[in-house]
Every structure is written in C-alpha cells, then in structure tokens.
Amino acid sequence: MSRKRQTAIFDRLADDGSAIATLTHNYPAGHVIPLHFHDRDQLVYASRGVMTVQTDGGAWIVPTHRGVWIPKGVPHSIAMSGAVAMRTLYLQPRLAKVLPRDCCVINVPPLLKELILHACTVGPLWKSERAQRHLVDMIVDQLQVIQMVPLQLPNLTDSRARRVAETLLTEPGNRQPLAHICKTSGASLRTIERLFLDETNMTFGKWRQQLRMMHAMRLLGEGAKVTHAALDAGYSTPSAFIAAFRKTFGTTPTSYFETFARTPSAPT
Known about the structure:
By secondary structure, this protein is α+β, with helices and mostly antiparallel strands. It has helices spanning about 110-120, 130-145, 160-170, 180-185, 190-200, 205-220, 225-230, 240-250, 255-260; strands spanning about 10, 20-25, 30-35, 40-55, 60, 65-70, 75-90, 105, 150, 150-155. Strands 1, 2, 3, 4, 5, 6, 7, 8, 9 and 10 form a ten-stranded mixed sheet that branches. The chain is globular. The two termini are about 30 Å apart.
C-alpha cells in the first residue's frame, strides 16, 4: 500500500453545475486509477468487488457494499482487487456537511444503496428539477446518519516507524517477533509502539491487525480461498481470521462474498 510520490491530476467533471454528478463504471481486476483529485466531495461505492483507496494520509479498503468518502481536493488513487462495479456520486462541496473533511469508509445501508444506484441511472441531479431535488435531499439525509467503518491504515512519518510499516506492508504475513522487526528498523519495540500510537492514534498491534484484515480482504476480492487469504495475511489459523472477520462485518467471509456475488449490479 506504499506509493511513490506522483503528481496528482485534476479530474474535471464535464458537468459542474448540478447538485450531484454521477459516474457508473466497471473495472477489470488489477486496474488502477492514477492519483487524481476533484473539485467536489465524492462518495465512491462498490456494488461489486474490493477497492483500495490510497492518499498521502493512508489507505482505505472498500469491500463490496461499503463506500469511501473522499472530500474535495484530496489526491487519491484507487486499485481494484477482482472485477469492480464502481458507482460514484460527486456532491457539491459541503452539501453533506456532517461528513468529515478526511477520507473514511462508510456503511451503505439498503436505502442508500438503492438511492446511489438510482441516481446513477438518472444522471446529474439538479435542484431546479422537483423530482431530482427530492432525490438529492434523500441522499443527503441518508449521509447525515451514516456509520463509519474502521478499515483505514494510516501512514507514518517517523523514519523508524515507517521502516517497520514498510517491512510489514511488503509482507503482511511476516511472522517474525515484533521486537525483532523493530530492532532491525533501528528502534526498540517500546519506541515503535509509542510512535504508532502518537502518529496513527492506533496501537502497533491494532495497526498490524488492520493491515492483515485489509490484505486478506483484497485477496478474497481477487477470488482467493478463505484459508489462503487467512494464512497469507498472517493469521495463525483460518478460524482466527474468520472470527476477526465476523467481529468486523457480522458474518463469515464466505457468507459475505457469496451474498454479494448473488446481488446484481446496476447496469453500465
């Protein structure tokens, strides 16, 4: 999830006057949308597949039927794990005032899902049109009470902590003791634990758990079996991964992906 410094491209929308502009696009497995930014707030929704959104601040994993909120002006790239059906809403800045000015992954409940899919079939939504104004208001109302999902992996700035992070990012299933990884990166375990907590507001252990879960989600999105995803991500056993997955998503990995494989996507 690390990324070499790139120049972000300003992706100007063809329509810049509507309350909400939309984009419907299906991407093949492995496709990467290069670093870019918009002059609107953006809700990117995965009706199928798994996406990884990367910014200077960190990485966000966006599994099926979750969305990622990307505020205006934030440079980001998006990588696809498996085939992805992406449905995007571009909102006039501050239309959804309660959402943060930082990226976050959000739950997309059934009503909001249908509103997103319907909006993408309608096209740009204008408040001057009565029916479209009601649709805009319903979308905004749903965003006011949205729940955020802890699927973020913050980046680090301290060189010692960054070396530890890069080691684990390169090999999420690394089973070396944390103390050994820290020592080879030039700091004690205690120092690294303090740096991770100070910079990410997460314990070192929690950051590593997030990394493992996000890596496993990408593998599952690519079609990997649960056992392979669990062991490759560094879980001691598949059952340990299934328990962690259930705690995060409320169901097993197999049930989660089978359910959404049966869910039809909106037409392209």
